[in-house]
Amino acid sequence: METATTCTPYGKEMDCKPTLTDREVVDFCRNGYLMLPGVVPDDVNRQVIDYLDRVDSTYEPTPIMEESFFVDGVLMNPQAAGAVRSLLGSGFTLPLIISNHRGPLPFDQPQNWHRDGGTIYTDRLDYLQVFYYPEECTEDMGPTVVLPGSHFMRNKAPMMAHLGSIRGTVSSAGPAGTIFLTVYGIWHRRSRATSHPKGKSKYRNLLKYNYWRTVPPRRDWITQEDIDFNTIKFDPPAGVFEQFQGAIAAARMFTWLCGAEDEYRKRGGQCWPIATTVRDGVNQEGTPGSLANR
Ligand SMILES: O=C(O)CCC(=O)C(=O)O
Ligand SMILES: [Fe+2]
User: Fold this and answer.
1) Is 206's C-beta closer than 6 angstroms to any atom of ligand 1?
2) Torsion of CA 56, 61, 66, 69, to 10 degrees
């Protein structure tokens, strides 16, 4: 909610055009993240770097939200905000806190695998954790790496901390202006940085902030008439789940996002969404009515 004492738009409700299609929303549910490489223009990235180096070099430069270049160019960047609007609906709120994971370069130790504190496991998508690189982050600058599909994998933090390299991880390395959206509970870590600074900043700056939902979910992103929810795959691509469980979890999240939670009856066995080999035009057992072929 917007506070009365400031005109800085902390928590302000916003709207814009959704940019994601049905397939992209399904992919977000499967993967738990969406990369938007280089979406912020260079002049905005430069102003952000100047601000982080000269005005506020702390780990929580939240007052950067006083700057219109940041609100308009980064938080309401058309591709990023369009993806947020698709996933959280109209009236999504701007962040309340901006963190900067300001990593020294070089940096020997990768972080422990973790999910951020406060994670809960749920079909609901009430908020998004979003990251932004104002300068290019190359593989040797210690980009964050994520484990696709891991937002549905329960594990205790002390067990995750024992893990080293994991198969199937994806790096967020990208050009200046790269933004990526995540389901809050996705497994991630900062990787090792062997490089010295390459850009203007002495650090690898990575801003992190959350947007929140204010409206009930409904399927009001870019819908695709030709999509058949009976044959589309919901499995997370990493393929490390117990058979079908990742697809079931992703389908539950998608169903919730469509506002069709009440239509989803998971009865076990060869229920939607795992029986994707049904004949063309045939509905699986249990396909939610509003997603079924009629
Ligand atoms: O710096 C990074 O790449 C990730 C940092 C992080 O995940 C954390 O501190 O929670
Ligand atoms: Fe983290």
Assistant:
1) yes
2) 80
